[in-house]
Amino acid sequence: MRAKEILAQMSVKEKLMLTSGKDFWHLIEFEKYGIPSIMVTDGPHGLRKKEGPGMGIGDAVPSVAFPTASCSACSWDREALGKMGKAMGEECVAEKVSVILGPGVNMKRSPLCGRNFEYFSEDPVLAGEMGAALIKGVQSTGVGTSLKHYAANNQETFRMTGSSNVDERTLREYYLKPFEIAVKKSQPYTVMSAYNKINNVPASGNKHLLTDILRGEWGFNGLVMTDWGGGHCHYEDLNGGLDLEMPGNKQLYLKETLKAYKAGKISDEVIDRAALKVLELLEKTADIASANATYDVAAHHQIAKDVALGSIVLLKNEKNQLPLKANVKPLVIGEMAEKPRYQGAGSSHLNPQKLDTFLGALQEAGIEYDYEKGYEAANVKDESFIDTAVEKVNKDQPVILFIGLTDDYESEGSDRLTMAMPETHIKLAEKILEKSKNVVIVLSAGSPVELPFESKATAILDAYLSGEAGADALADIIFGKVSPSGKLAETWPLSKDDVPCSDTYALVERNQVNYREGFFVGYRYFNTANVKVQYPFGFGLSYTTFEYSNLVVDGNKVSVDVENTGKVDGAEVVQLYISNKTKATIFADAELKNFDKVFLKAGEKKTVTMTLTDDDFKFFDVAKNEYVTAKGEYEIRVGASSRDIKLTAKVKKDGVVVDELAKFKGSWFDTFKGKPTDEDMKLLGIEPIHETTVRKGDYTLENTAMDVQGSGFGKLFYKIMLVAVRAALGIKKEEQDLIQNKMMIDSALNISFRGMSAMSNGIMQLWLASLLVKFCNGFSRPSKKKDNK
Ligand code: BGC
């Protein structure tokens, strides 16, 4: 093989050079060996390709904006995700991009995570399956993917410096599971390590995660790269299992790593492994850089629409208010009808090919309408448009009301503080609902929002962020061309306070993020603890009805008959859960293990067959350090949502006898009263970590500008950085303490000196970063007590 031949000819220095990128978006080339450079770029729901250096958010080449992951996951449709992936791959080939950075399969620990729109689900099986389908689609074109962010990257606050402290069982069964499924089913060409640490070990050099589990246990044979600026000490990262540090930064680490090699801190074996992985990736994808291809923009736009059509969720439809008749002349209210919110902010933000609007879709369909904007995204606090819109409402004309979250409310880099929509959107909805019962509410947001007016509403559709063709898809659903078939890929809580980690999420715990609730996240918590929710996981209505019958469990094969008993064609997502009844230890009420989406014409009946594997009955036994099956009884549940189980069957399994339930008696895992505490977390076999302040003299490259304010120089440095960040974010000084602004600023300043250096494109060399740290330390010796990071 050529990669191995080239490796054999290379010097250690050359091999190490391969393990760092060339610039922001390219890998290094070696003319001498005929190695070309390749381009890797975002992802994950469409191509964001920047010409030239830099991050390039906002000025990427045009590409089709597919629905974001939080939306497309609601399709529960592997085939649709496969088509979308293939289309994304074709766009990459046309733009000479060898690897697209995605998909993101992180779990939604809290609905407040600013990046939830980029993630599929709160359920590892659904996220893993959607991820695998997308990867297979992309990679069928020869383009590679980067499964991200591995792992336990579940908040944006302190995202580059935080440690996710999580017990081994929860890690294995919940946070790693979607990665395991995607890796085993689709072998992504690359995996991207997360910014955060896991139990205080950086993800970028985490031997347990990268070497033992990813490569050793799951058989991953691709390359591991850092998230952008997310590397730590490079030779330690390589030792842990990393192969490539990104972005490229004029060989920032070369000197230090060569020194480490000479001192025996990194072996030839490790360097060869990493360099070979880079060479293999180049070998697999190099042709793309010279490909001469185009793609069919209209066909890809149609794929984006099809995915949106299968993903939009009908949350409420009293008295069959929907679909509307085409001749009703609706009153459309809400600026999002003319300026749709269809994608999220941050590194996934791309430049769409053809952006549909709802008003445009009505015009194209020849449907007459009246329109009032009701609010403006640019000035979301301005209430002056509300009354004009409400005045137009009359009980004879159906209202289609667009509300949701604007870009400022959810973004990569910061977390939401509440689940509330902007005040203006809520007021507008409440006033309209007071005047009319004939209102269809369309929500556009990357995550669930509080719905204080829900009981007064009769029809609610959730469009999530449905991509450039989402508005067109909405029109088809609202006017009945297509029956909605999306089902929620996450629980919709009534309030953020209902979520187990809500008392500490993002704000309270600085850097040390203790996952006290274990795997009781999402429906695993809500359904086990019997907590009222707005809408359960897996829920979504249709214009037709389905009947389930004849459940047969034959070994690991589960089949069920599903009949469309309504008057229109439609698709149903059939969900298969297992409830572990063995009482061996604590278990969630039930866990999703498989699903299928079946299209049925009106009156049609089909048998849906889904398979289980032996692993689906196992849990991770920490003492044995392996998955085991507990001996006893299990309930197989088939349903239309996690709380709408249609048929069940009992099966018995042979296995080990485990008896550790007693130790949880009276704990939060038993009573679910209040919030989980440190003592509860300890029952999971892990000590919570509490951060103490880092002192002057102890600062290292891993500290941030925020950390170093205990020194005069550090304070000054922080102030300079603050001014620069404020300017970059366009935030006025007098508004910097407004809570959402503060979050954004904190998030930008929460980058370590090493991270600043890695993102500086060679401007801030490592020696300069080290010098700054020394100034902050006042050139004093580190105190005996090492910093606690
Ligand atoms: C994000 C990654 C992204 C990378 C490159 C990082 O800040 O976390 O998801 O792929 O930037 O834009």
Please give the structural blueprint.
Layout: H1 2-9, H2 12-18, E1 40-42, E2 62-63, H3 69-72, H4 78-94, E3 99-101, H5 124-139, E4 144-150, E5 163-165, H6 168-175, H7 177-186, E6 190-193, E7 197-198, E8 201-202, H8 207-217, E9 223-225, H9 234-240, H10 254-262, H11 268-285, H12 297-311, E10 313-317, E11 331-333, E12 351-352, H13 358-365, E13 370-372, H14 386-391, E14 399-404, H15 423-435, E15 439-444, E16 459-462, H16 470-478, E17 512-514, H17 523-526, E18 546-554, E19 557-564, E20 570-580, E21 591-600, E22 605-611, E23 618-621, E24 626-629, E25 632-641, E26 644-653, H18 668-671, H19 678-683, H20 712-729, H21 739-749, H22 753-758, H23 766-777
Helix pairs in contact: 1-11, 2-11, 4-5, 4-12, 5-7, 12-16, 13-16, 20-21
Regions with pLDDT < 50 over 5+ consecutive residues?
785-789
Please state the overall shape, judged from the principal axes of the Cα atoms: globular
C-alpha end-to-end distance: 43 Å
Number of strands: 26
Strand content: 15-25%
Strand order of the largest sheet: 10-16-15-14-11-13
Structural class: alpha/beta
Largest sheet features: 6 strands, mixed
Bound molecules: beta-D-glucopyranose
Number of helices: 23
Which range best describes the helical content: under 10%, 10-25%, 25-40%, 40-55%, 55-70% or over 70%?
A: 25-40%
Mean pLDDT: 94
